[in-house]
Amino acid sequence: MIKKIIAFTAIVVALVACSTVSMTGRKQLNLVSESEILSASLSEYQSYMKTAKVSTDANATAIVKNVAQRIAAAAEAYLTVTGQTADLQNYAWEFNLTQDKDLNAFCMPGGKIVVYSGMLNLIGNGPDRDDELAAVIGHEVGHAIAKHGNERASQQMLASMGGSVLGAVVSGASAQTQQIVAAAYGMGTQYGALLPFSRKHELEADYIGIVLATIAGYDADAAITLWQKMEAASGGANPAPFMSTHPSSTKRISELQKSIPKVKAEFGNVSQPAASSEPATTTKKSTKTSTKSTGFKIG
Q1: Cis peptide leading into 239, omega within 30 of 0?
Q2: Of the residues 140, 151, 202, 204, which is catalytic?
Q3: Above 50 in pLDDT, residue 165?
Q4: 140 is catalytic
Q5: pLDDT value at 246 more than 90
Q6: Cis omega (within 30 of 0) for bond into 241
Q7: What angle do CA 124, 126, 130 make, to 5 degrees?
Q8: Model pTM?
Q9: Which ranges of the chain does DSSP label H, i.e. alpha helix?
Q10: What is the spatial order of strands in the sheet that 112-116 belongs to?
Q11: Which residues 6+ apart lie within 8 Å of 173 measured at CB?
Protein backbone atom coordinates (compact mmCIF):
# COMPACT_ATOMS: atom_id res chain seq x y z
CA MET A 1 0.00 0.00 0.00
CA ILE A 2 2.79 2.43 0.94
CA LYS A 3 4.55 1.75 -2.36
CA LYS A 4 1.32 2.45 -4.24
CA ILE A 5 0.84 5.74 -2.38
CA ILE A 6 4.41 6.79 -3.11
CA ALA A 7 4.05 5.82 -6.78
CA PHE A 8 0.77 7.70 -7.10
CA THR A 9 2.21 10.76 -5.35
CA ALA A 10 5.25 10.65 -7.61
CA ILE A 11 2.98 10.68 -10.67
CA VAL A 12 1.02 13.63 -9.30
CA VAL A 13 4.21 15.53 -8.49
CA ALA A 14 5.55 14.85 -11.99
CA LEU A 15 2.34 16.07 -13.62
CA VAL A 16 2.19 19.34 -11.68
CA ALA A 17 5.92 20.01 -11.93
CA CYS A 18 6.31 19.97 -15.69
CA SER A 19 7.85 22.78 -17.72
CA THR A 20 8.69 23.08 -21.42
CA VAL A 21 11.98 23.48 -23.25
CA SER A 22 11.02 26.43 -25.45
CA MET A 23 13.37 25.71 -28.33
CA THR A 24 12.18 22.13 -28.81
CA GLY A 25 8.76 22.04 -27.12
CA ARG A 26 9.71 19.01 -25.05
CA LYS A 27 8.04 18.64 -21.65
CA GLN A 28 10.43 18.20 -18.75
CA LEU A 29 10.26 17.45 -15.04
CA ASN A 30 11.01 20.38 -12.74
CA LEU A 31 10.93 19.69 -9.00
CA VAL A 32 13.84 21.82 -7.82
CA SER A 33 13.61 25.58 -7.51
CA GLU A 34 15.82 27.72 -9.74
CA SER A 35 17.41 29.39 -6.71
CA GLU A 36 18.43 26.03 -5.25
CA ILE A 37 19.91 24.84 -8.53
CA LEU A 38 21.85 28.08 -9.00
CA SER A 39 23.17 28.05 -5.44
CA ALA A 40 24.23 24.41 -5.54
CA SER A 41 25.74 24.76 -9.02
CA LEU A 42 27.73 27.84 -8.02
CA SER A 43 29.12 25.95 -5.04
CA GLU A 44 30.16 23.02 -7.25
CA TYR A 45 31.72 25.38 -9.79
CA GLN A 46 33.70 27.23 -7.12
CA SER A 47 34.94 23.93 -5.70
CA TYR A 48 36.06 22.85 -9.16
CA MET A 49 37.87 26.13 -9.86
CA LYS A 50 39.81 25.88 -6.59
CA THR A 51 41.61 22.81 -7.88
CA ALA A 52 41.52 23.49 -11.63
CA LYS A 53 44.66 24.81 -13.31
CA VAL A 54 43.64 27.90 -15.29
CA SER A 55 45.45 28.20 -18.62
CA THR A 56 48.27 30.73 -18.85
CA ASP A 57 48.07 30.77 -22.66
CA ALA A 58 46.76 34.29 -23.25
CA ASN A 59 46.03 33.75 -26.95
CA ALA A 60 44.11 30.48 -26.44
CA THR A 61 42.20 32.00 -23.53
CA ALA A 62 41.22 35.01 -25.64
CA ILE A 63 39.93 32.68 -28.37
CA VAL A 64 37.74 30.80 -25.90
CA LYS A 65 36.42 33.96 -24.26
CA ASN A 66 35.62 35.65 -27.56
CA VAL A 67 33.60 32.68 -28.84
CA ALA A 68 31.96 32.13 -25.46
CA GLN A 69 30.90 35.76 -25.21
CA ARG A 70 29.23 35.58 -28.62
CA ILE A 71 27.40 32.38 -27.68
CA ALA A 72 26.32 33.94 -24.38
CA ALA A 73 25.03 37.01 -26.23
CA ALA A 74 23.14 34.72 -28.63
CA ALA A 75 21.57 32.88 -25.70
CA GLU A 76 20.45 36.15 -24.13
CA ALA A 77 19.08 37.38 -27.45
CA TYR A 78 17.10 34.15 -27.83
CA LEU A 79 15.71 34.33 -24.30
CA THR A 80 14.73 37.96 -24.85
CA VAL A 81 12.96 37.36 -28.15
CA THR A 82 11.09 34.36 -26.76
CA GLY A 83 9.80 36.27 -23.74
CA GLN A 84 12.05 34.56 -21.21
CA THR A 85 13.62 37.77 -19.95
CA ALA A 86 13.05 36.71 -16.34
CA ASP A 87 15.70 34.02 -16.84
CA LEU A 88 18.33 36.60 -17.78
CA GLN A 89 18.85 37.59 -14.16
CA ASN A 90 20.08 34.04 -13.47
CA TYR A 91 23.16 34.43 -15.66
CA ALA A 92 26.45 35.88 -14.42
CA TRP A 93 28.69 34.69 -17.24
CA GLU A 94 32.26 33.55 -16.64
CA PHE A 95 34.55 32.06 -19.27
CA ASN A 96 37.57 29.90 -18.47
CA LEU A 97 40.14 27.78 -20.26
CA THR A 98 41.73 25.20 -17.97
CA GLN A 99 44.81 23.07 -18.51
CA ASP A 100 43.46 19.56 -18.75
CA LYS A 101 44.13 17.04 -21.52
CA ASP A 102 40.61 15.57 -21.39
CA LEU A 103 38.21 16.29 -24.25
CA ASN A 104 35.77 18.21 -22.16
CA ALA A 105 33.82 21.42 -21.58
CA PHE A 106 30.85 22.42 -19.46
CA CYS A 107 28.47 25.25 -18.67
CA MET A 108 26.89 25.25 -15.23
CA PRO A 109 23.46 26.78 -14.61
CA GLY A 110 24.11 30.48 -14.17
CA GLY A 111 26.53 30.67 -17.09
CA LYS A 112 29.86 29.40 -15.74
CA ILE A 113 31.62 28.14 -18.87
CA VAL A 114 34.80 26.06 -18.82
CA VAL A 115 36.65 24.62 -21.81
CA TYR A 116 39.48 22.13 -21.28
CA SER A 117 42.71 22.65 -23.21
CA GLY A 118 42.40 19.09 -24.52
CA MET A 119 39.25 20.07 -26.38
CA LEU A 120 40.92 23.14 -27.85
CA ASN A 121 43.89 21.03 -28.95
CA LEU A 122 41.55 18.56 -30.66
CA ILE A 123 39.88 21.39 -32.57
CA GLY A 124 43.23 22.78 -33.67
CA ASN A 125 43.94 26.03 -35.51
CA GLY A 126 42.29 25.32 -38.85
CA PRO A 127 39.89 27.68 -40.66
CA ASP A 128 36.91 26.13 -38.82
CA ARG A 129 38.45 26.57 -35.38
CA ASP A 130 36.03 29.18 -34.03
CA ASP A 131 33.03 27.51 -35.66
CA GLU A 132 33.85 24.16 -34.05
CA LEU A 133 34.52 25.81 -30.71
CA ALA A 134 31.15 27.55 -31.03
CA ALA A 135 29.54 24.12 -31.49
CA VAL A 136 31.17 22.91 -28.27
CA ILE A 137 30.25 25.97 -26.20
CA GLY A 138 26.81 26.27 -27.80
CA HIS A 139 26.12 22.67 -26.82
CA GLU A 140 27.13 23.28 -23.21
CA VAL A 141 25.15 26.53 -22.96
CA GLY A 142 22.25 24.58 -24.49
CA HIS A 143 22.28 22.32 -21.43
CA ALA A 144 22.06 25.40 -19.21
CA ILE A 145 19.25 27.28 -20.94
CA ALA A 146 17.25 24.06 -21.39
CA LYS A 147 17.65 23.54 -17.61
CA HIS A 148 18.88 19.99 -18.02
CA GLY A 149 20.60 20.19 -14.63
CA ASN A 150 17.31 20.90 -12.93
CA GLU A 151 15.63 18.11 -14.86
CA ARG A 152 18.39 15.63 -14.05
CA ALA A 153 18.27 16.50 -10.35
CA SER A 154 14.46 16.25 -10.44
CA GLN A 155 14.64 12.83 -12.07
CA GLN A 156 17.05 11.61 -9.41
CA MET A 157 14.78 12.97 -6.69
CA LEU A 158 11.78 11.22 -8.18
CA ALA A 159 13.67 7.97 -8.70
CA SER A 160 14.79 7.86 -5.08
CA MET A 161 11.55 9.18 -3.68
CA GLY A 162 10.61 7.51 -0.40
CA GLY A 163 8.73 8.78 2.60
CA SER A 164 11.42 11.19 3.86
CA VAL A 165 12.56 12.25 0.40
CA LEU A 166 8.97 12.82 -0.66
CA GLY A 167 8.46 15.02 2.37
CA ALA A 168 11.54 17.05 1.47
CA VAL A 169 10.33 17.53 -2.10
CA VAL A 170 6.81 18.51 -1.10
CA SER A 171 7.96 20.92 1.59
CA GLY A 172 10.52 22.52 -0.68
CA ALA A 173 13.36 21.71 1.70
CA SER A 174 16.81 22.14 0.19
CA ALA A 175 18.94 20.00 2.50
CA GLN A 176 19.58 17.37 -0.18
CA THR A 177 19.69 19.61 -3.23
CA GLN A 178 23.43 20.28 -3.29
CA GLN A 179 24.26 16.59 -3.01
CA ILE A 180 21.78 15.73 -5.77
CA VAL A 181 23.10 18.46 -8.05
CA ALA A 182 26.67 17.31 -7.47
CA ALA A 183 25.65 13.79 -8.47
CA ALA A 184 23.67 15.05 -11.46
CA TYR A 185 26.65 16.98 -12.75
CA GLY A 186 29.16 14.23 -12.06
CA MET A 187 31.49 16.57 -10.19
CA GLY A 188 34.44 14.68 -8.77
CA THR A 189 33.69 11.54 -10.74
CA GLN A 190 35.78 9.86 -13.40
CA TYR A 191 34.16 12.15 -15.96
CA GLY A 192 35.42 15.27 -14.24
CA ALA A 193 32.98 18.07 -14.98
CA LEU A 194 31.38 16.42 -18.00
CA LEU A 195 27.65 16.47 -17.52
CA PRO A 196 26.36 12.88 -17.59
CA PHE A 197 23.01 13.73 -19.09
CA SER A 198 20.84 11.26 -20.93
CA ARG A 199 21.13 10.71 -24.65
CA LYS A 200 17.90 12.67 -25.07
CA HIS A 201 19.44 15.64 -23.30
CA GLU A 202 22.63 15.39 -25.31
CA LEU A 203 20.85 15.42 -28.65
CA GLU A 204 18.67 18.30 -27.51
CA ALA A 205 21.76 20.25 -26.44
CA ASP A 206 23.34 19.50 -29.83
CA TYR A 207 20.32 21.08 -31.52
CA ILE A 208 20.21 24.12 -29.24
CA GLY A 209 23.96 24.47 -29.70
CA ILE A 210 23.75 24.84 -33.46
CA VAL A 211 20.89 27.32 -33.08
CA LEU A 212 22.98 29.47 -30.73
CA ALA A 213 26.05 29.14 -32.96
CA THR A 214 24.00 30.22 -35.98
CA ILE A 215 22.53 33.21 -34.16
CA ALA A 216 26.07 34.14 -33.08
CA GLY A 217 27.22 34.13 -36.70
CA TYR A 218 29.10 30.82 -36.79
CA ASP A 219 28.76 28.02 -39.34
CA ALA A 220 26.58 25.25 -37.89
CA ASP A 221 28.14 22.73 -40.30
CA ALA A 222 31.24 22.82 -38.10
CA ALA A 223 29.36 20.75 -35.53
CA ILE A 224 29.65 17.83 -37.94
CA THR A 225 33.40 18.20 -38.43
CA LEU A 226 33.76 18.55 -34.66
CA TRP A 227 32.06 15.23 -34.03
CA GLN A 228 34.05 13.60 -36.80
CA LYS A 229 37.18 14.65 -34.90
CA MET A 230 35.68 13.36 -31.66
CA GLU A 231 34.92 10.04 -33.31
CA ALA A 232 38.46 9.80 -34.67
CA ALA A 233 39.85 10.60 -31.22
CA SER A 234 37.84 7.75 -29.76
CA GLY A 235 39.67 5.28 -32.00
CA GLY A 236 36.42 4.17 -33.58
CA ALA A 237 34.78 3.25 -30.29
CA ASN A 238 31.12 4.25 -30.07
CA PRO A 239 30.67 5.68 -27.59
CA ALA A 240 34.16 6.68 -26.51
CA PRO A 241 35.02 6.22 -22.81
CA PHE A 242 34.53 9.92 -22.13
CA MET A 243 31.11 9.76 -23.78
CA SER A 244 29.85 6.56 -22.17
CA THR A 245 26.52 8.12 -21.22
CA HIS A 246 26.22 9.94 -24.54
CA PRO A 247 24.93 9.10 -28.02
CA SER A 248 27.45 7.74 -30.49
CA SER A 249 29.22 10.20 -32.77
CA THR A 250 27.49 8.58 -35.74
CA LYS A 251 24.06 9.20 -34.20
CA ARG A 252 24.90 12.79 -33.37
CA ILE A 253 26.22 13.50 -36.86
CA SER A 254 23.11 11.97 -38.41
CA GLU A 255 20.80 14.12 -36.28
CA LEU A 256 22.85 17.25 -36.96
CA GLN A 257 22.72 16.65 -40.71
CA LYS A 258 18.92 16.54 -40.47
CA SER A 259 18.67 19.67 -38.31
CA ILE A 260 21.26 22.05 -39.79
CA PRO A 261 19.37 23.01 -42.99
CA LYS A 262 16.26 23.88 -40.96
CA VAL A 263 18.27 25.81 -38.39
CA LYS A 264 20.07 27.81 -41.07
CA ALA A 265 16.78 28.64 -42.77
CA GLU A 266 15.08 29.72 -39.55
CA PHE A 267 17.90 31.45 -37.70
CA GLY A 268 20.43 32.33 -40.38
CA ASN A 269 19.14 35.89 -40.85
CA VAL A 270 19.16 36.81 -37.17
CA SER A 271 21.11 39.96 -36.30
CA GLN A 272 24.43 38.71 -35.04
CA PRO A 273 25.62 39.50 -31.52
CA ALA A 274 28.68 41.72 -31.67
CA ALA A 275 31.92 40.10 -30.61
CA SER A 276 34.15 41.92 -28.19
CA SER A 277 37.67 42.53 -29.46
CA GLU A 278 38.89 42.47 -25.84
CA PRO A 279 37.11 39.64 -24.05
CA ALA A 280 36.52 40.36 -20.38
CA THR A 281 37.63 37.88 -17.75
CA THR A 282 34.21 37.93 -16.12
CA THR A 283 31.04 39.67 -17.15
CA LYS A 284 27.92 40.06 -15.03
CA LYS A 285 25.97 40.34 -18.23
CA SER A 286 27.19 39.84 -21.74
CA THR A 287 26.81 42.80 -24.09
CA LYS A 288 23.14 43.18 -24.90
CA THR A 289 22.25 42.48 -28.48
CA SER A 290 19.44 44.23 -30.26
CA THR A 291 16.64 41.77 -30.88
CA LYS A 292 14.57 44.07 -33.05
CA SER A 293 13.84 42.97 -36.60
CA THR A 294 15.59 39.66 -36.16
CA GLY A 295 12.90 37.97 -38.17
CA PHE A 296 13.09 34.55 -36.57
CA LYS A 297 10.12 32.68 -35.23
CA ILE A 298 10.05 30.30 -32.34
CA GLY A 299 8.17 27.04 -32.33
Answers
A1: yes
A2: 140
A3: no
A4: yes
A5: no
A6: no
A7: 80
A8: 0.76
A9: 2-16, 34-51, 58-81, 117-123, 129-145, 148-159, 163-171, 177-185, 199-215, 222-233, 249-267
A10: 94-98, 112-116, 105-108
A11: 167
